[in-house]
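Collaborator request, handled under Task 6.
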Amino acid sequence: MTIGKPSAIGDIHGRLDLLDPLLLNIFSSPLYTSQSRIVFLGDYVDRGPFSAGVIDRLIELPKKGVDRICLAGNHDLWFLHFFEDPIGETNWLQWGGVETAASYGVQAGGPIDSGAFRRAVRDQLAKEVPQSHLDFIRSLPAHHVALNTLFVHAGVKPGVALDDQKIEDLTYIRGEFLNDRRPHEYFVVHGHTPVMEPDFRDNRANIDTGAYATNMLSCLIVTADGRQVLQRSP
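Structure tokens returned to the collaborator:
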């Protein structure tokens, strides 16, 4: 078996130090070929120390001939919302944005409940964050389908067709999706909800192994005959 299309990588959360060795493992796998595609499941920023570097790496992969698709995660959208409305976006700094700001050289360890402080942080970030990073986040799709598998950040609203799913559900949903054992329109590969080990169910697979806290970043390779091979780093 020499087909490796597609592979999925779980929530990175600023852990470039885990992403780079995992990519090397994938590229050296016999399941990875020139026709392979890597699907990143979102949450590239926040919590870990190297968010800016992670986005740089994801942007440069196609220039090196890597076929990749990057999906939107809720943390990525929070980052973008903070740029657009730092007064209204009250969650981002609290849930890992301080670390992301630091990766761009902006110190944001202050009164994050203050709208004036959040605006000041945004103004500093506007000077440091490359336009290419903002364009990258704005371009992120919410899902990808291949080999009868749906790749998405958080999950799906059960019983709702993919075309009718809301981006809020695709990037935020938890309990309603996680607790539903019925078959979905597609087998779902997702992240968003950290687990100590990859969680395989009849209707879904969760590969968010909490990289920022556990030092474990997971990859699932989905082959044409349905076999699934998991690789982890370090």
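The cover message to the collaborator said: "The two ends are 25 Å apart (CA to CA). The chain has nine helices and ten strands. Please let us know whether this matches your experimental observations."
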